[in-house]
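Ticket #4471: structure output looks truncated?

Reporter: J.K.
Steps to reproduce: submitted the chain below (124 residues) through the standard prediction queue, then opened the result file.
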Amino acid sequence: MSERYDTGRKVRREVLGDAHVDRADAARTEFDAAFQEMITEGAWGTLWARDAIPRRERSMLTLALLAALGNWEELELHLRATAQTGASREDVLEVFLHVAVYAGVPRANSAIRIAKEVFAEMDR
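Returned output as attached by the reporter:
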């Protein structure tokens, strides 16, 4: 594997946590191995590894895009990651207020509902 892949694994663990990465590794098959390598190098080893903006802001951008596009499963994952990225719950609400204006109230409403469920789960 490449240095970018190694960096991606490190950053992915820092942002998503060991438990998530361990589950993803355990579920990896020959079928999706190339995809897992691509996102580890591209998303985590390239984009998330950049230091041009802090992880808090990168996390907020990610949440906004996922909510605006209706990618609910990934939204849940990245809501949980706020515990590592430094994005506060107040930050998350501000993100979804922006989503309401620029991507639509139904998307923001769904995102807020999911955030409430995820945060309640995290608090338990």
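Triage note (M.O.): checked the attachment and the full token line is present. The helical segments are 3-16, 18-27, 33-47, 55-69, 72-85, 89-103, 105-123.
Status: closed, working as intended.
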